[in-house]
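> call design_seq(struct)
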């Protein structure tokens, strides 16, 4: 089959059972390999959904520039989609994110605006305060360029990509019951979108959001932590607009994962399964193993592997 362009490579990612990691344990972990996309992350499909929905609604006009705040993955996805659809794209990224992300966005022909972190922030650890600085710059550029602002933290198309894309693919790929779904929350869109559809198909499924131990906004709102952690792409210690009151009712709980737990689990994916993934994939695996060796012993657990480890070669992950 000959494809029209790289947009046809987005979606239809494989579902893999992590048989080596779960060898000797009761139960299984299934991993949806979302990093197997042209931009090496789950945000490729989100970017395509956002742009196509905006085109259909008329909110995005032909030739209009596109601006978005991003940790890098959404920026890469939007760079690909905008390039192939003929839009200029400007990605606004915190300097705290790994440099590979910004380089990849540039490689696909987009413009990158890097924003300084707060004075007390740590490179490689983007806090909610850092993100606020990026948001200010994104708003300025949107106004200056009369651009279409993606606004992935509030845009319902973000969760729609999980609801009609990822989740339906999973249902088609697996011929047995899924007992548990866990996912690291960035915007919360993929997590809540996939949860919404899986709850319809598997009424008894339990769905858990994953957060960094030091940014537990939903896990422990009374003591949310410092907000400083290494798991890039989420854990900003902020309320997530897509996690609305009605959607939160679908969630069965939240799990925290430390930096070291995420790192060790990511390394296990590489060493034991030959899956070269990023921090958030390790966070998801760590959370799944906690459940599989605890109250969900013997069950089938589903996780997403959101992005590739190649985006973190400059960090201490490897």
């Amino acid at each position: 089959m000959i494809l029209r362009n790289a947009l046809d490579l987005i979606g239809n990612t494989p579902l893999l059972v992590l048989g080596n990691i779960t060898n000797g344990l009761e139960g299984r972990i299934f991993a949806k390999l979302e990093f197997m996309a042209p931009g090496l992350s789950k945000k490729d499909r989100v970017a395509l959904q956002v742009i196509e929905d905006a085109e259909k609604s008329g909110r995005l006009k032909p030739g209009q520039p596109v601006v978005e705040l991003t940790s890098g993955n959404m920026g890469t996805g939007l760079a690909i989609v905008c390039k192939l659809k003929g839009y200029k794209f400007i990605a606004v990224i915190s300097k705290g994110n790994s440099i590979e992300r910004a380089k990849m966005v540039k490689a696909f022909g987009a413009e990158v605006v890097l924003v300084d972190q707060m004075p007390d922030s740590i490179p490689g650890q983007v806090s909610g305060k850092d993100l606020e600085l990026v948001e200010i710059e994104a708003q300025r550029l949107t106004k200056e360029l009369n651009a279409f602002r993606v606004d992935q933290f509030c845009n319902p198309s973000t969760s729609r990509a999980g609801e009609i894309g990822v989740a339906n693919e999973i249902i088609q790929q697996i011929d047995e019951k899924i007992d548990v779904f866990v996912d690291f929350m960035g915007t919360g869109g993929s997590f809540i979108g996939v949860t919404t559809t899986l709850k319809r198909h598997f009424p008894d499924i339990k769905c858990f959001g994953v957060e960094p131990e030091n940014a537990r906004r939903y896990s422990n709102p009374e003591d949310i932590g410092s907000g400083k952690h290494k798991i890039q792409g989420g854990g900003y210690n902020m309320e997530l607009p897509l996690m609305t009151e009605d959607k939160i009712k679908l969630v069965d709980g939240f799990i925290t994962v430390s930096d070291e737990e995420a790192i060790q689990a990511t390394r296990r994916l590489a060493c034991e399964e030959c899956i070269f993934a990023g921090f958030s994939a390790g966070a998801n695996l760590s959370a799944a193993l906690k459940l599989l060796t605890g109250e969900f012993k013997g069950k089938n657990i589903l996780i997403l592997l959101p992005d590739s480890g190649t985006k973190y070669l400059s960090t201490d992950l490897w």
